[in-house]
Amino acid sequence: MADSIRVSNTSRVLPVPTSDDEHPTTLLSLSFLDTFWVCIGPVQRLLFYRSEAPLASVVQSLKSSLSVTLGTFYPLSGKLALSADSGELFIDCGAGGEDDGVEFTEAETDEEDLERLVTDHVHHWETYKRLVPDMRIDCLPAPLMAVKVTGFRGGFTVGVSVHHVAGDGNSFSRFVKAWAETCMSGGDAVVMREAVTFDRAVVWHPRNSDICRSYLDVWAPSRPTMTFHTFVKPTSEIARRTFIITAKMIQSLKRIATETSRNGDSTQTKKKPPSTFVAVAAHAWTCITRARATEDGVSTMFFMADCRSRVDPPIPQGFFGNCVKVCNTKSNVADLSVGEGHGFRFACDAIERTIKEETSEPFRGCEEWVQRLLAGLPDHGRIVNFAGSHRFGFYKADFGWGRPSRVEFVSMPNEGAVVMNDARDDEGGVQLSLALPPHHMEVFATVFLDGMDGLGSDGFKL
């Protein structure tokens, strides 16, 4: 079916300047938080929309509003480049070349069933990959963003690929929502709630240049050729599936996390409930561990911590760039596998303890982050890797044809990948997508949904 998707046009979208002056900064240096991500492949998101609007008018509106939005978020139309003098990387926002701007691909299909792709809890991943733009970033200079819009009977998809060096999920979600608001308004530039800044100096470190160079020496020793790392050995067959965790279900998880013991019908509680992220991540981590049916050893969970509000002085909320650090917590499989909620509570405590340790001084030891990451990778497959956030709000991206019917993270090729989104129709709920071998996925679905009310037989509602 994926072969039925045909490209009809490819063009480039240039930013419309927000004033009579040229962009205030044409060259952006990278912070060590940006450089950390140079070896990661494109981050790819896919938004599905039900609509009867003609594709030509959809494309015209999306392209014109993208041009206006890039006037504010202008670095996204630039390139990641290499300085011939210093050997350092930077973002070139105005190279003046014929391949400037964001590549915008238009495609169509008469055979693919949009409704099937929207409603099926099982991912049609081969089709998903054809619906996001292929962005080559393995040699510098490299683009930072590309867009692909595909028309279906009854709707369309917007696929976006972005280089992680350009910004983290928090930054990119603000761009997508600004683009949607601009499109809905008919092309008028939106007034951002927080002024957008790209100044990497707000992520201050006295040895920033040295740290960036040391990261590059590990990640990209052959630059301008870039070698990308998967960190997890790919397995031969992966199943990908999406689950919806309702707000009611999350409140139940938080309540269970505070329980210490049961005496008859009474329950004793302790401490304050965990955050939504901690509760959902702990539940998923323990269920994946049980699904893998490993009797001993250690399971490692990786996740991101946003540092914006955790440094002194705090980084402006309007900062567009990378401001996350990789955290990992390890636990014995036996501790995570204990029933009656004990394994879940153990996981909550482990995640909360790691967050506290890693964010008390967010940039402490950053000189060794790459070495720590590589040293912390186990030589087995017991890894759970969390990405995304329910706070990003991609389901709010209404371009004028209604909110997305579905949002998915396509760049999750490896076993153990878990991605969080907000839930479309449940305020406070979470959408969770993950990748596991098929036999593990079957067990996970049963364990994950066991005893949870209101989800239906397959745990998926859109």
UniProtKB/TrEMBL annotation:
- Keyword Transferase among record annotations: yes
Q: Which keywords are on file for this protein?
A: Acyltransferase, Transferase
> Where are the residues of the annotated region Disordered?
1-21
Q: Known InterPro entries for this protein? A: CAT-like_dom_sf, Plant_metabolite_acyltrans
Write down the superkingdom of origin: Eukaryota
* Polar residues: bias regions: 1-12
Name of one Pfam family that matches: Transferase
One GO MF term on file is: acyltransferase activity, transferring groups other than amino-acyl groups
Listed PANTHER family: PTHR31625
What protein name is recorded for this chain?
Malonyl-CoA:anthocyanidin 5-O-glucoside-6''-O-malonyltransferase
List the source organism.
Answer: Acorus gramineus
